[in-house]
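Memo to structure team: turn this sequence into structure tokens by end of day. - J.P.
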Amino acid sequence: MRNFTLKTAVKFLFFAMIISLLCFQGESIGLIPGNAGIDQEQEVKKARLYKDVFPLITESDLYCSIFVMDKMELEAQIVGSERDKERILLRESEIFYVNRGIAYGFEVGQLYTILQVGEKISNPITGKRYGRIVYRRGRAQIVSVEEDRAFAKLEKSCGEVMVGHFLVPFEEKSGLLGKDLGYDVPISEEEGSWGRLVYFQDDYQQISKGHYSIVDIGEEDGIHFGQQLVIYRKTEGKMGSIEKIGNSIVIDTKQKTSTVKILSSNNALRVGDFVQPRYK
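Reply from structure team:
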């Protein structure tokens, strides 16, 4: 009898431990009904919060885009390749010569942005002139310096890097997460600043989502980095109306101009189309 009682007690204790262990595991992984409901609700809230949120401004937008340079104040220039003095086009990881050295403040380890300077641009509608279009072509690091020249390594390229391109000190920038706010908003030409698309990257005739454009409004008009500008077009004729056709985001600003990236559009965009900041 005593043996039977002892065996019964041991079995009871064993089953009690199993049940306790199962309950503990259920709580830890959210199997208990009450906790499961709370966890699911939290996940739904997170999903709603981050829906349609994505990188609006990326590293490529910051370091591989275009802008307008009002005045030419560039001195440091690529003058040749270490491997082949006759070659003009450079490759990533290649060493090249720069026509400035210690005397101009160059030091080993410094980073520089590579710029290609293009043509002067103007407003095709009004004829107003701006500076030269400039393409960011890559990044280089100084690996050796002499009194009047330096040697740099091409770390990253975005487009052709060539002898004759210029170098300016590299400035680290931060991208931007957010939502494309779209273009279904009221347009009021009497309210605030409005401008036009005046130049497209690579001199394209038409652009759409993902492309870059110069607009003829800038810092003096209150335009700032990360601002979204609605794009619209006026139809011709006596009964002309406004057609909202796209949305863009400002990725670079200068005094009189800005660079925008097209976030969305329902039509091909053309030089001369209008842009306006969102007011609602």
